[in-house]
Structure to design on (197 residues):
């Protein structure tokens, strides 16, 4: 046994156990406070990430709506451009009817009726697509709806009133497709008034 104690003493000399580093002992309360702080910080980060996500989703939804609106506007613009090209045809149908009605000796009664029906159908198609004529005569001149091409001296209507329509204007879904070309009332010159008397 003496030998065993020698070996044991020698063994202790050969293998020295190093003491483990001891972490400073935190009281449980401060560790709990530290963890609660970390949890609060993680909750704040989660809240920020959730806000970012919601904003990104709202931005994407707005993008989809804007894209759909731009597509609809592009279709309307294309349709508006096509309709604008057809308006002179409608104008010419009206002129043809006026000319035919002014010559009563013409035997074109059935032809006039056919042209009137065609013009009426054309106007109905335009109305289905939101195209409506601008009411001009008798209204105040509005530069957003009318294009003044004539100044008509008169005492019968107030100055700035539309008294003649040279070419009918149209709107499409509230937007001016083509302004009305109109004659606007102006006060007669002094010389014109004396000449009229």
């Amino acid at each position: 046994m003496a030998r065993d104690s020698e070996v044991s003493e020698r063994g202790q000399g050969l293998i020295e156990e190093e003491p483990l580093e001891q972490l400073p002992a935190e009281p449980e309360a401060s560790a709990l406070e530290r963890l609660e702080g970390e949890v609060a910080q993680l909750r704040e980060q989660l809240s920020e990430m959730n806000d970012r996500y919601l904003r990104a989703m709202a931005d994407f939804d707005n993008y989809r709506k804007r894209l759909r609106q731009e597509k609809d506007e592009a279709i309307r613009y294309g349709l508006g451009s096509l309709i604008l090209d057809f308006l002179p045809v409608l104008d010419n149908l009206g002129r043809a009817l006026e000319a035919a009605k002014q010559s009563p000796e013409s035997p074109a009664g059935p032809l006039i009726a056919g042209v009137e029906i065609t013009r009426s159908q054309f106007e109905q198609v335009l109305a289905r697509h939101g195209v409506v004529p601008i009411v001009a005569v008798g209204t105040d001149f509005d530069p957003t709806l009318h294009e003044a091409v004539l100044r008509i001296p008169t005492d019968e209507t107030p100055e700035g009133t539309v008294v003649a329509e040279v070419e009918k204007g149209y709107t499409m879904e509230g937007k001016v497709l083509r302004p009305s070309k109109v004659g606007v009332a102006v006060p007669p010159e002094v010389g014109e008034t004396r000449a009229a008397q």
Remarks:
- The CA atoms of residues 72 and 125 lie 19 Å apart.
- Residues 28-102 form the longest helix (75 residues).
- The beta strands are 131-133, 146-153, 162-167, 170-172, 175-178, 180-186.
